[in-house]
Design brief:
alpha+beta, about 15% strand
């Protein structure tokens, strides 16, 4: 839920090594960019523009391919200027990413009377982090309910914290790309006055005709790497985590990632969600082996109640509180077989660049898209699949229970930007402008 490349061409042809990393739109998009799972997988730093087919009913293949291409392009090695590098993704095992240079949401949610910093301005670490050596450009993840326009980064939406096997809280961050940042700043949507003055909030959408990058958000889930974790299996960063007035430098491993992309064919946005392959077992599967958020031997050391799958941890929720119990996570809805087959294809291709690449340790859980985006009776566009949950981001809202289980489009359709409930175009970032005043 940092920034970006400029415009990207839709990959209509197989890329050569020399072509990888080109960051300008040159050419017209075609069906290959969003081809179904049967076609050859090609790794590219170029973001897909949009669907080359009408929104299919109940057919996830085109959208899953779109999701994987987006994940690869956004995770591509990045140059100092925020553009995709010529080096192949994962060639060195791990790499800094394009989306890792985007602007954090808390940089946009500035105090009243201020203006968000110019694009690319490094975040200024809080004093507690500066005191232990944090400099500008340091990654900082906060735990606070409301302070200096920063909201909690250790609680899941509409739920509580995910606590890993080392009793450490998973941390969350939201970043937006340059077109989304520009739309917010140019229209003063970081203020209530700007939100009230604008007519319809309508972020720029990607299209096949133009192909340039448009509004995209990323929400990432990170775990503190510690006992039992193999850092070589994760995309990792060194960052500072803040609890109140305390700051600590830690190594974080990526365990979950939402990519939200607005396109011409999907005004309700395309919602792609990825996880680390070791996160959790399926509820109905054999549960031996190592997992990030599941202990096969839980009952040998803990009570039956504390080993209940996907149960909210006890309150108070505070990362610094000692003696907290890990959450025992299982996947309620297995990954669709067709999606799993596509995962294997991309993971195989990623390993060709480097058998030890961390990027082959991630998998697409699914893609939610609007089947009928212009349906006048349903503003959500009849999403498919109707429910979609990430074990690291929606741990406690998995399943298929109406109004309870996680639906990306259904949830974000409720996001509003003003006390008068003006729709905020499927982003809660603008909803929090109202909360911070």
């Amino acid at each position: 839920m940092r920034i970006s490349k400029a415009a990207y061409m839709v990959g209509g042809a197989v890329l050569t090594a020399a072509a990888v990393g080109v960051a300008s739109f040159t050419g017209s998009p075609n069906a290959r960019d969003t081809a179904p799972t049967g076609e050859t997988v090609v790794l590219s730093s170029r973001l897909p523009a949009d669907m080359a087919v009408e929104n299919p009913v109940g057919d996830r293949s085109y959208y899953d391919t779109f999701s994987w291409k987006s994940f690869v392009a956004l995770s591509w090695p990045v140059r100092a200027d925020g553009q995709a590098d010529a080096q192949m993704i994962g060639a060195d095992g791990d790499n800094a990413t394009v989306w890792g240079t985007w602007m954090e949401d808390y940089q946009i949610l500035v105090a009243d009377g201020e203006r968000p910093p110019a694009w690319g301005t490094p975040a200024v670490p809080p004093p507690a982090c500066q005191a232990i050596g944090a400099a500008d450009k340091a990654r900082v993840l906060y735990h606070t309910t409301k302070a200096d326009a920063v909201v909690s980064s250790s609680l899941q939406a509409q739920a509580g914290p995910l606590i890993d096997l080392n009793a450490r809280y998973v941390r969350y961050e939201i970043a937006v790309n340059r077109p989304m940042y520009d739309y917010i700043v140019d229209n003063s949507l970081y203020t209530q006055a700007g939100l009230k003055a604008i007519g319809t909030i309508d972020f720029p959408a990607r299209s096949r005709a133009i192909g340039a990058e448009r509004a995209t958000m990323v929400k990432a889930a990170w775990k503190v790497l510690g006992d039992g974790d193999n850092p070589a299996r994760f995309h990792s960063i060194n960052a500072y985590v803040v609890n109140g007035d305390q700051c600590a430098r830690v190594q974080l491993g990526l365990v979950g990632m939402h990519i939200s992309t607005k396109t011409e064919s999907a005004p309700q946005w395309i919602w792609s969600t990825f996880e680390h392959v070791d996160n959790a077992p399926d509820a109905s599967a054999d549960k031996t082996g190592h997992y990030n958020f599941y202990d096969p031997d839980c009952l040998q050391s803990r009570s039956a109640e504390s080993c209940t799958p996907n149960a909210l941890p006890d309150t108070p929720w505070d990362p610094s509180r000692p003696g907290q119990v890990p959450v025992q996570v299982v996947r309620v809805t297995p990954v669709d077989a067709e999606t799993a087959a596509l995962n294997a294809k991309f993971q195989t291709e990623l390993k060709k660049a480097n058998p030890d690449t961390v990027w082959a340790n991630y998998m697409l859980i699914g893609t939610q898209y609007p089947q009928k985006p212009t349906d006048t009776t349903d503003p959500t566009g009849r999403p498919f699949p109707p429910y979609l949950a990430n074990t690291a981001i929606e741990t406690f809202m998995q399943g298929d229970t109406p109004m309870v289980s996680s639906s990306c489009i259904g949830c974000h359709n409720r996001a509003t930007a003003t006390p008068a409930a003006k729709p905020s175009d499927f982003t809660y970032i603008l909803s929090r402008v109202m909360a911070k005043e």
